[in-house]
Amino acid sequence: MLQKPKSVKLRALRSPRKFGVAGRSCQEVLRKGCLRFQLPERGSRLCLYEDGTELTEDYFPSVADNAELVLLTSGQAWQGYVSDIGRFLSAFHEPQVGLIQATQQLLCDEQAPQRQRLLADLLHNVSQNIAAETRAEDPPWFEGLESRFQSKSGYLRYSCESRIRSYLREVSSYPSTVGAEAQEEFLRVLGSMCQKLRSVQYNGSYFDRGAKGGGRLCTPEGWFSCQGPFDMDSCLSRHSINPYSNRESRILFSTWNLDHIIEKKRTIIPTLVEAIKEQDGREVDWEYFYGLLFTSENLKLVHIVCHKKTTHKLNCDPSRIYKPQTRLKRKRPVRKRQ
Q1: Alpha-carbon distance 123 to 116, whole Å?
Q2: CA–CA gap between residue 304 and residue 321 (Å, rounded)
Q3: CA atoms 135, 242, 231, 295: torsion sign
Q4: DSSP 8-state secondary structure symbol assigned to residue 264
Q5: Are 247 and 143 contacting, i.e. CB atoms less than 8 angstroms apart?
Q6: How do strand 18-23 and strand 6-12 relate by DSSP bridges?
Q7: How many CB atoms lie within 10 A of CB 213?
């Protein structure tokens, strides 16, 4: 049982209405849901709206806050988005049966989870003001934000910059751990990293849909896709989100992790510290460590459900820790002419 209640959005199979329900366990949410929809608790169960996965007590803690669940009674079934889509298509006339079958086939093959997720996000956001950019064009999106933020891209760029700055603060806290002899070198490396980060505006372009293609992690419309987990066998489906669409998506996007594949605290910073201590005349390749700490070379955007620390097993590349040493050619002595 969880110490803190988890909030979810709950709907019954035959009801268009959704209610917010909070509980410390799957059974508690089920009980409250049955009470809310006046359904029998015996034989009822909960499943994920997105793909129909049935919830158990063991699986319940990994469910994201505000996830959408479906309450099923005995004899009822839910196959995920395909159930809603099939019902929607069935509203057309009989000549559309072929279309219904073709659509169901697309949503039932090996790539179905990705298609279901993208289609659901599209249907959820189709009526939202995604194209709007300024506070004047979409006031609800900016609710709760300081008045200095006048554009969506500006705020999301700031959000990314804040994350990168927090990584820099972590690195900046280490000089006292390297010893007096190595402190000067550590501060030199740190200064080089700071200068480069300032020159690229702390890579805030990663969240800015208006940035050039190579500088952002989203589509020009603002769609982000989960780039994890790094153990893909444990993920049921790929997640996507457009924080530019509405206030709820913007807030939810803040829970996604800009995660290091090679871990920052356990691997990168300790390796950098050790390299400075043991450099023995060699020059530490600070740009290699800069790439691992602050750039998409090692940073991946990951949905909170897919964020698994236990899957990180990578080490820094030993061949890139120091810069290659240039060998000076020995000058041959000039032979005296006889």
Answers
A1: 10
A2: 31
A3: negative
A4: I
A5: yes
A6: antiparallel
A7: 7
| Whether pTM exceeds 0.85 | no
Tell me the two tokens of residue 70: 């479906």
Matching residue, tokens 């750039």: 295
d(CA 19, CA 319): 55
Q: Which domains does the chain have, with CATH numbers?
A: 6-85 (3.10.20.10), 93-127 (no CATH), 152-306 (no CATH)
H/E run at residue 249: helix 247-253
d(CA 167, CA 205): 16
Residues in a beta bridge with 9: 20, 68
Nearest to 193 by CA among 163, 167, 211, 214: 167
Which conformational region is residue 222 in: left (phi greater than 0), alpha (psi within -120 to 50 degrees), or beta? Answer: left
Handedness of CA 154, 157, 163, 164 (dihedral sign): negative
**Which amino acid is residue 53, in one-letter code?**
T
**Strands (E) located in 67-190:** 68-72
- 202/62 Cα distance (integer angstroms): 32
How deeply is 43 buried, as exposed, middle or buried, from its count of CB atoms within 10 A (0-12, 13-18, 19+)?
exposed
Residue the block writes with tokens 């800009």: 258
Q: Can you tell me the distance from the alpha carbon of 130 to that of 95, in angstroms, rounded to the nearest whole number?
A: 34
Q: Which residues contact 48 (CB under 8 A, 6 or more apart)?
A: 55, 63, 67, 68, 69, 70, 80
Scanning the structure block, which residue is given the tokens 């997640």? 239
- Give the tens place of pLDDT for each residue, 224-234: 988 875 544 44
Contact of 235 with 302, CB cutoff 8 Å: no
Report residue 95 as tokens.
Answer: 């000549």
Cis, bond preceding 229 (omega within 30 deg of 0):
yes
Given a contact cutoff of 8 angstroms between Cβ atoms, the answer to whether 265 and 254 are in contact is no
Q: How many Cα atoms within 13 Å fall on the side-chain side of residue 263?
A: 12
- pLDDT tens for each residue of 165-211: 999 999 998 877 777 778 888 999 999 999 999 999 999 999 999 99
